[in-house]
Structure formats: structure tokens, C-alpha cells
Amino acid sequence: MNFQFSIEYLLALLIGLVIGMAGGGGSILTVPIFVYIFGIPTLLATTYSLFVVGVTSLVGSVNHVLKKRVNLRITAAFALPSFISVYLSRRFLVPALPDPLWQVGSFALSKPTAILYFFIIVMILAARAMIRNDRPEQGEAGLLPDGARPRYDLLALDGLAVGMLTGTIGAGGGFLIVPMLVLLAGLPIHRAVATSVFLIAVNSFVGFMGDLQHTHLDWNFLLPFTGLSIIGIFIGMYLARFVAPDQLKKGFGWFVLIVAAGMIVKELV
């Protein structure tokens, strides 16, 4: 194993570290790492991202499930439409998109490039949410009126939207899931984060299953990378005890914004 190979695979630890410390966000880094560091084609990179983030998040969610932090009823209301959306997106929508996606005269926007641009937009929105800490405070967990039932209809619609996002760009969408679980289901923030990690894990797996029938995978690369990511999540869960969550999210938000800016420069130059 040469020096460069070792440095690249340390990035797998970084993905797990982020999920372990921040409770999500690993997929924001996974696709850029696969595309720009390992030179993997964009569409295949989104498939690999779904697997890595799915397995790593599932490991991270086991502790939440055992401690009963995951609200299973809310999970079902959000997850069922989300699963349908993410599977259909990966199985039919993404393969059916034309390439080039858009062409005017001599200018042609390829499908992989369009997906990368969409991913960059999502990164910027996620970074903005983390920097501004756009989520209700712990004391605002009871945003639903006393005695009011969770808005299962709106949760289902949000599940459809997040599923399509996950299916299209291979990102978990945790920055969208957590606020909706707090606002629409009235979950305390710690339970919303726990439920979100579990949803991201299963959502990613469902999306990955939609790719299996039409994608050749390099398991010799994917499995070791995922294993290192899992090691990273345990390190991150340990380090999270010593770092203030809000400061951690804000710092990670700025990091994601810098990565997004670098991607823009890389694509335009």
C-alpha cells in the first residue's frame, strides 16, 4: 500500500467520523471524495455513496434503537413513501434521464455534470442550515399544540421529497429530515436526530437496491472503504462526548461550504 493510497483511504475514516460526531452528513462528503479523489464516474459514485452511508449509518443507529430513541410510528409514516420514492428514483428515474440532459446549440449539459451541479446546490443548502443551526431548540420540541397528533400526511410528503433527493444524488437528506420530525411530529431534538440516522440508513439501502440490477460494483474497493468508515463512526461517537454539538455542526457546515466552492471551481475551470 503506497502513501497516496493510505491517505485516500483515511478519507473513509473521515466519513464515519462525521456521521459519528454530527449524527449525519457523511453523504455530503462521500460523493465528492469518490468523484474527485478516486476518479469514480458520478453516477457510480452516487451508488457507492448509498452503500457506504447506508451501512455506516445503520451501525450508528443501532445504539439509538437499543436505547429506544427511534420513534417507530413516526419512522413508518415517513419511511414508507420515502422508500418507494428512493427506489423508483434509482431504479427508473436516474437511468431514464437523457444524456445530454440539456443542449442548446453547441452547449451540452451531460447527465453526470447536471447531477454534480444539483449535488453542489444541496451541499450549499445543507451548509447554510448547519452554520445557521436552522432547527428548533430543545425547548421547542412541543411545537405541536397540546394534544395535537403528528401531521402524518405532511410527513409522508416530506418522505417522498427526501426519497427523491436521496435517489437522485445519493445523499441522505438528514438536514431536511430532522427539522420536519421536530416541526411536524413534535419529536424532541435528540429523538429526531436518532430517528433521522435510522431513516438515512434504510433509505440509502433501498436506493442501493434499486441500482443492483443495472450497475457493476467493485466490491474489492467498496467493502474495505465501508469497513474503515464504520471504524470512523465509533471514533466519532467517542469524540462527540467532548465537543459541543452546535459548534461541531457550525464548523462542519463551513467545511462543507468550502468543499462545495472547490467543486464549483473544479467544474468551471
TrEMBL record:
Annotated transmembrane regions: 12-37, 43-62, 74-94, 114-131, 152-177, 189-209, 221-240, 252-268
Annotated compartments: Cell membrane; Membrane
Any single GO CC term annotated in Swiss-Prot or TrEMBL for this entry: plasma membrane
Primary location: membrane
Keyword terms, alphabetized: Cell membrane, Membrane, Transmembrane, Transmembrane helix
Membrane topology: Multi-pass membrane protein
Family to which this protein belongs: Belongs to the 4-toluene sulfonate uptake permease (TSUP) (TC 2.A.102) family.
PANTHER family xref list: MEMBRANE TRANSPORTER PROTEIN MJ0441-RELATED (PTHR43701), MEMBRANE TRANSPORTER PROTEIN YJNA-RELATED (PTHR43701:SF2)
Stated name of the protein: Probable membrane transporter protein
